[in-house]
Sequence to fold (143 residues):
Amino acid sequence: MAIIYKWDIPAMNAHIQSNGQDNVIYTVHYRYSGSEFVPDGEGNEPPTGKTYSSTNIGTQSYTYVEGDPFVPYEDTEAFENVVIGWLEGSLDVPSMQVSIAANIQSQITPVNEDLYFTWMDPQPPTPPEPETEEEEEEVVDDE
Fold:
């Protein structure tokens, strides 16, 4: 199956006012993720299997120069698409996709593994058994 790529913009830093404009964004925090569903080959409907994913996390800085076209901030999906356009225009997205795809492929078909010495992972010592104390019966003298 094909890798599906997705942008996520969790935050943006903005100058409250700069060069006569309000909310001038100077840093965009982003996550660019890819995921791929790999069916288990059992022919189930809907298909069963496992989804593999990888994410590139980063920030991208921008500088607004007075007189340049300015898009005012809006809390809308349309403005999010404007910001994604900025990212796609300033980042090497094909290179990011190659990196994400390679990471997903290494999850699907690992070429490395972690090995451990099990004898070096000692079990915690067993706590000593609590000593049982014999209770003495209290003798009450009724005199």
Q: What stands out?
A: DSSP finds two helices and three strands in the chain. The radius of gyration is 30 Å. Helices lie at 77-90, 93-108. The CA atoms of residues 71 and 82 lie 8 Å apart.
